[in-house]
Amino acid sequence: MINFNLLCNPFNILNLISLSNKYYFLTLIFLSITIYLSIKSKIVVVKTINFISLLIVGISLPYFFLVKDNFAYNVYLKNGHIDAFNFKFDDAIFITFKISLFLITFSIISSILVNSGIIQRFLRYLSCSSNLENLFYRKICLKRFIEKLTLINFSNLLNKYSIVLIHLIFICFYTFTYLNKYAIVAVEPHSLPFKLSGIIYYLANYIIPSITTLIYFSYRRSTIYTIFLCLFSTIISLATLSKGAAMIILIPCILLNISEKKFYLSFYLSISVSSVFSLVQILRNNSYFSLNGVNQINTSLYLIIDTYNKFFFYGDLFIFKLLVSFKDILFRFDNFSNFILASNYDSSRTIGGKGFLYWLIYKPLVNLDVDAHHLAWQGYTMDKGLFHIGGLLSNFLIVYGTGIFNAFLFAFLCSSILCSSELICMNVCAKYNISKHASIIPICLTLLYFARGGMDKIFAFIFFTLLSISLILPKYFEKKRFSIVKSS
C-alpha cells in the first residue's frame, strides 16, 4: 500500500532519488536556465561562452563514449593515470553539472556587472576623458602628426595592386621563416641577436595575420579576394605549423560575412578553416621528430607537397575529412576527454587552485613546471616544446576541485575580464563610427580567452591596446575615410 504522507514530503522524495539522478535533474534545470539567459541576454560574451560551451558538451560527450576504450588505452593502460574503463554516464552527468553551474554563475554575474553599471563607472573613473585626451594631443608633440594623418585617404591606398604586393611580401617572409625554422610552433628556433627570434615569431603568428584581417575588413570583399585569402591563410599556417595563425584571419572574416548575410563567402571560408586543420595536422605528423628529448622539425617543400597529396588523394573522402576537421576545430577549444583529465588533476602538484585563478588575470604571473603539469595531466612527460592543456572549462573543473569558493571566484574573474573587454570594444567602435560590426571583436576575444584558458600575452596586448585607444586617443579618426569600406 502506498504511503501518501511519505510522498507529500519533498525531502522524502529527494531521499528516494539516487545522487546521480539528483545531479541529472539539477543539470537539466541549470542548462535550461543557461539557455534562457543566453537568449534573453544582450551581452555578447555571455552568448558566446554559453553557446560554445553547450556545443562542446553536446557533441563531445556522446563522442567520448564512442571512443572511450581508445582514450582509456592511451591514458590509463599506458600510463596508469585514470581508469576510464569504469567511467559511467553518471560520472559524465556530474561533470556536466559542474559545467552548468559555471555557465549559470557566469551569466548571472555578467548580467549584474553590466546592468548595474559597475564596470561602466569604473571605466569612466579610469578615463578622466577630457584630461587624458587633451594631455595626449597637446602636450606630447603629436598634434601636427595627427593633423597630417587625418588628411590621408586610406581607402585609396588599398587597391588590387597594393594588396597583391603586400601579400607577396608576406609570402616571401613566410618562405624565409619556414626554410630557416623560425616562427614554427613547438620548435625552439636558433638564437638571434636583439631578441629577433621572438619578434619574428609574434610577427608571423599574430601581427601579419591581424594586418591581413584588417585589410580584408577595409577592402571590397569579392569572391576572388575571399578565395585568395583562403589560400594565403593556408600558406601561413603551413609555414608556421600553427592552426591559430589561420584562425586569426578566417574566423573574424566568417563572422563579418555572416553579419552581412554573405553566406556563400562564409561557406568558402569555413571550408578553408576545415582544410587548414587537416593539412597542418598531417604536416606536423610528417615533419616533427624527437632528438635528445627536444622536439625538432624537418622543413622541406617536398613535405608540403606530400601533405597536399595525402589530404586530397589518399584516405577517406574529402567531405568526410572536412567533417572530421570541424569536429577537431570544436575540440580545439575543449572537449570531454579534457574534462576527464581535469577532473582527476591534482593541482597541488603544480600551481594550485590560486595559480589557475591567476591565469585568468595574466598567465605569466605564474611559473608552471611543464613536466610536473604533464605528469598531473596525462601521466607522462613530453618532448621540450610540446604542451597539453585544456580550455576554460577544463581549468574551471581543476579549480572546482580545490573548493566551491574558488569556483565562484573563477566565474567572477571571467565575467569581469570578458565583460570589460566587450564594453571597451563597443566604446572604441562607437568612438570611431564602426559600430556596424562591433560585436565581432568581443566574440573573437572571447573565443581566444576560452581556448587559451585565461589571459595570455596576445589577449593582454589586444585588451590594453583597445583600452588605451578608448581612454587616451582623441577622436580625430572619426572621418569617413577611416571607416570600414562597404563591400561592392
Number of helices: 24
Q: Rough shape?
A: globular
Strand content: under 5%
Main β-sheet, in a few words? 2 strands, antiparallel
Query: What is the helix/strand order?
Result: HHHHHHHHHHHHHHHEEHHHHHHHHH
Please state the structural category: mainly alpha
Number of strands: 2
Helix content: over 70%
Compact overview of the structure:
This protein is mainly α.
Overview of the structural elements:
The chain has 488 residues and is mainly alpha-helical. The chain has one domain (118-482). 72% of the residues lie in helices and 2% in strands. The chain has helices at 4-8, 10-16, 19-40, 44-66, 68-79, 89-115, 118-127, 129-139, 143-149, 154-157, 160-179, 196-218, 223-240, 243-259, 263-287, 301-313, 318-333, 336-343, 352-361, 370-377, 392-400, 404-431, 440-452, 457-471, and strands at 288-291, 294-297. Strands 1-2 form a two-stranded antiparallel ribbon. It is globular, with a radius of gyration of 25 Å. The model is unreliable at 1-18 and 476-488 (pLDDT under 50).
What characteristics describe this protein?
mainly alpha; two-stranded antiparallel sheet; 24 helices; 72% helix; globular; disordered C terminus
SSE arrangement:
Layout: H1 4-8, H2 10-16, H3 19-40, H4 44-66, H5 68-79, H6 89-115, H7 118-127, H8 129-139, H9 143-149, H10 154-157, H11 160-179, H12 196-218, H13 223-240, H14 243-259, H15 263-287, E1 288-291, E2 294-297, H16 301-313, H17 318-333, H18 336-343, H19 352-361, H20 370-377, H21 392-400, H22 404-431, H23 440-452, H24 457-471
Antiparallel strand pairs: 1-2
